[in-house]
Amino acid sequence: MRPVRGRIRLAMGLAVAGVLCSLASLGCLALAMRDLLRASAAYPWPAFLGALACTLLACFLRLQAFNQSHYAAFRLEVILRNDLVRHLSRLSFGELQALGSGPLAKVVQNDVQALHVFVADSTPLFARAYAMPVFSAALLFALDWRMALAAVGVLAVGAGGLSLAMRGRETMTRRYHQAREQVSAAVIEYVQAMPVVRTFDTGQTTFGRYHRALERYLVVLTDWYRGASFSSRFAIAVLGPLPTLAALLWLGAWWTAQGQLDFPVWLALLLFGMGMAEAMFPMMSLAHMIDQAKLSVARIQQVLAITPLPPARAPERRPADATVRFGGVA
C-alpha cells in the first residue's frame, strides 16, 4: 500500500468531507422546515438553496473520492503484478513447479484483483462508515442528549448482536477460503488429468478427491451459517434505519406532546438519526472485504518471500558453444 498511500488518504479525506456536506444539507432542511412552521411571509429560500448546494457538493466529493481510490487501485495493481512477475522470473524452475500454475495464477490474478477491489471501493466507504456515526452522534448530543442516548442505545444493541455473529470470524474465514482453494485445486487436477483418467482410471479416485473437497466445503458453510444464523439476522434487523427511526419517532412524539421538545429540533433529530443508522450497514460488508484483503496480502507476501536464484557471477561472459560437459558423475 505504500506507493499509493497518499492517494488513498486523499480519497478518505474527500469521503469525510462528503459526509460533512451531507450532514450540512440535512441541517439546512431542518432550518427550512423550522422557518416554514413559523408561518412567516418570506419563503426560506436560503435554507433550501443551502441544502441543494450541500447535496451537490456531497455528491461531487463522493465521486471524487471514488475516482482517487480507483486511480490508486489501478496503480497498485500494476505495481504488484510487475513485482510478482519480476520476482517469479528470478525463481528456479523447481520452485515454480512446486508452487503450481493454479496457485500462482490465483495470486497474480485473483489476489491482486481482490486488493484492487479493496482499495477502489472500501477505502471511501471505510471513511464514510466511521465518520458518519461519529459526526451524527455529536450533532444528536448537541441537540438533545436524551434522544441521542436512545439512538446510541439501539445501535449498541445491534452492535452486540453483530459481535456475537462475528465471533470466531477469523477462524471461520480461514476455513472457508481453505475449503474453496481445495475445491479449486481438485477441479484443476481433475481437468488436467482427464486424458490419463480416460486411459488408465475410471475416474473414481480423481473425482473422489473432488467430491470430498466439496463435502468439506459444505461442512464449513453449514457450520458458519448455523453458528451465526440468529445473531446475524437480529443484528441486521436492529442496525437498519427503521428501529432507530422508530425509537426517535416515539420518544420525540411523547416529549413533544409534553412540551419538553420543540418540533423543529425533533425533526432535525430524526434526520440526523437516520444518517447515523444508515452508515452502520457498510461496516458489516467492510469487515468481510478486509478479511479477504488480509488473506490476499498474506499470499502475495508468501510468494514474494521465496528466495530467488543468486545473480550470475559474471553476467557479461557468454558461452563459446552449446557443449555441455559433465564432471564427477557416477
How many alpha or pi helices?
Answer: 12
Order of helices and strands: HHHHHHHHHHHH
Fraction of helical residues:
over 70%
Distance between the termini: 52 Å
**Could you say what the CATH architecture of the largest domain is?**
Up-down Bundle
In the CATH hierarchy, the third-tier topology of the largest domain is known as ABC transporter transmembrane region fold
Q: Give the CATH superfamily of the largest domain.
A: ABC transporter type 1, transmembrane domain
Question: Whole-number average pLDDT?
Answer: 81
State the CATH class of the largest domain: Mainly Alpha
Shape, principal axes of CA atoms = elongated
Q: Which parts are unreliable, with pLDDT below 50 for 5 consecutive residues or more?
A: none
Briefly note the structural class of the backbone.
mainly alpha
Percent of residues in beta strands? under 5%
Biggest sheet features? none
CA gyration radius, whole angstroms: 29 Å
Keywords: ATP-binding, Membrane, Nucleotide-binding, Transmembrane, Transmembrane helix
Pfam families: ABC_membrane (PF00664)
Protein name: ABC transporter ATP-binding protein
Transmembrane segments: 42-61, 125-143, 149-166, 234-257, 263-281
Please tell me about this protein's structure.
This protein is mainly alpha-helical and 330 residues long. It folds into 2 domains: 1-144 and 261-308, ABC transporter type 1, transmembrane domain (ABC transporter transmembrane region fold); 165-255. Helices cover 82% and strands 0% of the residues. The protein has 12 helices and no strands. It has helices at 5-37, 45-88, 93-99, 101-143, 145-165, 169-192, 194-200, 204-227, 229-238, 241-257, 263-278, 281-304. Helix 4 (101-143) packs antiparallel against helix 5 and helix 10 (241-257) packs antiparallel against helix 11 (263-278). The relative contact order is 0.12.
